[in-house]
Amino acid sequence: MTTRADAHAAAKDAVKAADRAHVFHSWSAQELIDPLAVAGAEGSYFWDYDGNRFLDFSSALVYTNIGYQHPKVVAAVQEQAAKLCTVAPGFAVDVRSEAARLIAERTPGDLDKIFFTNGGAEAVENAVRMARVHTGRPKVLSAYRSYHGATSAAINLTGDARRFGNDSASAGVVHFWGPYLYRSPFHATTEAEECERALRHLEDTIVFEGPASIAAVVLEPVVGAAGVLVPPAGYLPGVREICDRHGIVLVLDEVMVGFGRTGTWFAADHWEVVPDLLTFAKGVNSGYLPLGGVAISAEIAETFARRPYPGGLTYSGHVLACAAAVATIGVMVEEGIVEQSARTGAELLGPGLAELAARHPSVGEVRGLGTFWALELVRDPATREPLVPYAAAGAANAPMAAFAEACKKGGLWPLTAGNRLHVAPPCNITAEDVAHGLEILDGALAVADAHMA
What we know:
The protein is of the alpha/beta class. The protein is built from 13 helices and 16 strands. The protein has helices at residues 4-22, 59-62, 71-83, 94-106, 120-135, 152-157, 191-209, 235-246, 298-303, 319-334, 337-359, 398-409, 431-450; strands spanning 38-42, 45-48, 53-56, 113-117, 139-143, 173-176, 214-219, 249-253, 277-280, 292-296, 363-369, 372-380, 385-386, 412-413, 415-417, 420-423. Strands 4-10-9-8-7-5-6 form a seven-stranded mixed sheet, with helices on both faces. Strands 11, 12, 13, 15 and 16 form a five-stranded antiparallel sheet that branches. Strands 1-2-3-14 form a four-stranded mixed sheet. Helix 4 (94-106) packs across helix 10 (319-334), helix 7 (191-209) runs parallel beside helix 8 and helix 12 (398-409) packs antiparallel against helix 13 (431-450). The protein is globular and about 70 Å long. It starts with a helix and ends with a helix. 49% of the residues are buried.
């Protein structure tokens, strides 16, 4: 007689065998990975075929902002599928128009036109194209500590190590240093110094590259995958002023930090900065279906009022993805999820992570906003030497790998990047689940402590 356990084991084996045979995974040496076979998910948890449940402190790849399988979004997708599964992007259709309206209502300033893409990297690609056509200039500036996607322009804009294997050195991209007081490239000792010196460095870079050659500055308002770096108070307004003075388009990449992740609809709202172009994806529909886009200012939209925009996508504004976006934004409003994210950060994650840092010497710094935080792990808190070297792999990354494994054994799925733990649970995570996750982290950090110098 076949038991339920036997059936689950057979299903797991079949899934893993098919994955090994046919799926080519991103950012991986294919024969060195062993992906977990996921059987299901709900809320802030997912589970495998063996019945192991994981509290997801990564929100998948920082996109399940309202958690897994929210019934209202699932129902909206099902209803839309029964009505109309797809239609070409050149037609006007109710759900696409409504998604655009709801997004435009929440973006800063006059960003009232929405160009839909299939994800964040395509959004960045198209924002850069718009900026270049609008200005007639070739160069684009972006920060070294950044990640903007893995398509051609986006990966060249990216500043972190994932760029190395893809950098064509011919993409018209110039990198600069953004603010990061804990590891200040400007030898600053205060937030004010870091802000002033970072802005001066950006200004100098622009001057020496030639302002008339620069189409855009592309920035994550809160740096995401490259560090969860919250800028000093005056930095983004200062960048806005520099761009205005030189006629440079300011593109804010909100792919990771938009739609409640930092406790506001968009991270730019914290500093009341209005970009010329804003890219989004991920949280717009909690990743239930692929969707991204560019929110466009009136001035840049006017450039293409009588001049064709030289770009497009077969699935731009796919109706099922837009239906998920309409439902997701509705849920976020009805359930106060943006406000909940802000409270969770201020009252639970911020204080709770600070308490862990006080107990564990391997935690060099805690930083973040809303439901987006980082613990920077170090070998020595005095020298701030990272727990593992930059872009570490294999044996060099063993301390972080051991820490991550300790998290998983405790029932927490972590998001590690370099020498950091990124804490990014769903924006509507409960207080009880936050407490449970922090308890697991407390135990796992003892493993990191053991790897200190």
